[in-house]
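JOB MANIFEST
job_type = single_chain_structure
chain_count = 1
residues = 234
[input]
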Amino acid sequence: MTNLKFKNMTQQPNSPDRGYRIGSIATPRVFHQLGILVLDGSGSMKEGISARKIHLNQEVSSAVKDTFTLFKLSSNRNNFSFAIVNYDNKARIELDITPATKVDDMRAYDPTVGMGGTTSIAEGLKLAKQIAEKHLSTQEDGGIPKTAVIVILSDGLDMTEQETLTIANTLKSNDRITITACFFETLGGDRDGMNEAASFLKKLCSSDQHFNIVFDAEKVKNFFVASVSSKKKI
């Protein structure tokens, strides 16, 4: 979906996969896109398993770390920032606005830590809206354009559908904000329930093309990267 442009890099001897030395200079910022990951921390994310038979929350944590690594290794990394909101029937900011150059791709990003309740996407979107508005309200030097992409991930039915739709429609009325969403299928889950949940998530998106169904960490990562880069080179 996007053209990936990575820095030249050499791996240090006996270092982990993320232990690279920077080998090229980042290009100057020409736009500033904020990716806000809105991650389901409800109890089912800890109980459900993916197509790889790994718990969904663990798959999401891996996907976030791998996404951050990709952006940190990009020569266009100066153009992107990230934030994370975790939600169940409440929400919290897990990561406030942070440049892609400074995100931590070594720590865990399990959305269920301190969560585990029911699913209220509205609560997550309320905080995402605050973060997006904060990002867009400040001017960049040289008039560099600023945009925000809100990326929703969920594995189940939203308990606050009408409120969620209202917030999503308000966000979509701003042409500098895009909403994407992915539904994380549970291996062996109730097919009718999953189809209903996926259909609702699609309604929240800026277009049908901004929705996808994911099955494991790799597909989650690919969706995050495609959403946050939004056809711009990373």
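[summary]
The longest helix spans residues 56-72.
The chain has six helices and eight strands.
exit_status = 0
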